Amino acid sequence: MKPVPPNQQRALVDRLVQACGGAYSPDVRRKYFISGPQWAASYQGQALFHAPTRSAIGFEDVIREYGKIGIGYWCTHDSDVIPAEQLGRDGQCEIVARIQKSLADHGLKCSMVTTETFFHEVFAAGPAAESPEIREYAAYRVRNTVDIGHELGAQFAVYWPGSLGYYTQGAIDETQSLRWYADALNAACERDIEVAKKKNRPTLKHCLEAKPFEPQAEILLPTSDAMLAFIGSGLLRHPEMVGLNPEYLHELMWGGAPRAALARALLAGKLWHFDINDGYRLKHDVDIGVGLVNPLDWLNVLVLLRAHNYAGPFNLDYKPPRTTSNYGVFAVSFPSAVDRFITLWEMAGEVREDAIVREATEALKAGSGVAAGADGKAIADANKELLTLHELIAHRLVQILLGLHRGRQYFA
Ligand code: GLC
Ligand code: MN
Ligand code: MN
Predict the structure, then answer these.
(1) 2, 75, 201, 391: most buried, per Cβ within 10 A?
(2) CA–CA gap between residue 269 and residue 246 (Å, rounded)
(3) Mutation pick for ligand 1 pocket among 77, 81, 114, 250 (CB with most ligand atoms within 8 Å)
(4) In whole angstroms, how far apart are CA 244 and each of 65, 290, 328, 367, 388?
(5) d(Cα 290, Cα 294) in Å, to the nearest integer?
(6) Atom of ligand 1 nearest to the CA of 159
(7) What pLDDT, in 10s, does the model give residues 179-188?
(8) Average pLDDT, the chain
(9) Taking the chain, what is the end-to-end CA distance rounded to the nearest angstrom?
(10) Which atom from ligand 1 is nearest to the alpha carbon of 245?
């Protein structure tokens, strides 16, 4: 192939995107509760070992491009859009008004707001540091985010505690730090109750997000299960207002089964918001686009969520790779992530309706009918052939995922 000069590269990308097929229209995409974070689209590709590869882009551009793609909801950290020194001041009102206008102009809604309590130097010792003024500042930030959320019409607030933990041991008492962290959440909930009443709006759903490592070496609330225990610990004054925002990859990172983690959250009635992405077990937070690494597991996850009528947001919390250009972020990365999600969601519907999966599942639950009181060996013998269906169901899922049930041949 001949070299592709820079002025022909976008056309090539566009042509190949078209050739991929399988894309949904913006109107179809808007029917799903899919949200696009400000920070995902504006991520410049930088990290500890990496210089940025993309230029900066603001919320007006992100919202406009999400609108064109058909992403119906937008979410943000407070400091993604409002410089830290403007938070809670006049500058904030002016920016919030501009955001409202952008959302209205492009037909999006703000679904969620989240407080950044990890990036700013004030959070070097975490959001629940010993020093009372740091904790008062953290409480101020989460209260202010509640205000922003109500201004923007959000339904959810998310809390990723970030640096709640330590690199070196001994300086903190974990029980004390967790009490202090609860104080910040209590401050947010209490502010919410006040503002919601004044504005005659429902209170926000406050969702905790766990991550097992990064940015600290040791994390005090490393998993969704730890968060559930924290919600039920008695430290929160309004535990009914607090639920979970699990992130798919964050559960995989500690070696958990994301589907099982989601099931535990469902049982607790706390699966309120869900960050969708992909990556690898026991590695760092690579935040790859949904379905690019573990499509089979994703199919399974969505079968579970459909079975339990999950109706919360699917938040595209991933990072377009460093090799994707500014143009590619909206020409390839976001539309393809949305379309993979929708395809997997539709396939999950197909799995739930599939006659083979259904009959096999029902048969497993029916058992063999061997007389009650039979001994273990007799029960095992009576169920032997039935249990083969486990593997058949797994095969059927892969068939549906790969379209194998429709047959496939390769003609060179
Ligand atoms: C950070 C985390 C992300 C989380 C978000 C919400 O960006 O990396 O996982 O969802 O904060 O606070
Ligand atoms: Mn996340
Ligand atoms: Mn992540």
Answers:
(1) 75
(2) 13
(3) 114
(4) 29, 19, 32, 36, 36
(5) 8
(6) 12
(7) 999 999 999 9
(8) 97
(9) 20
(10) 10
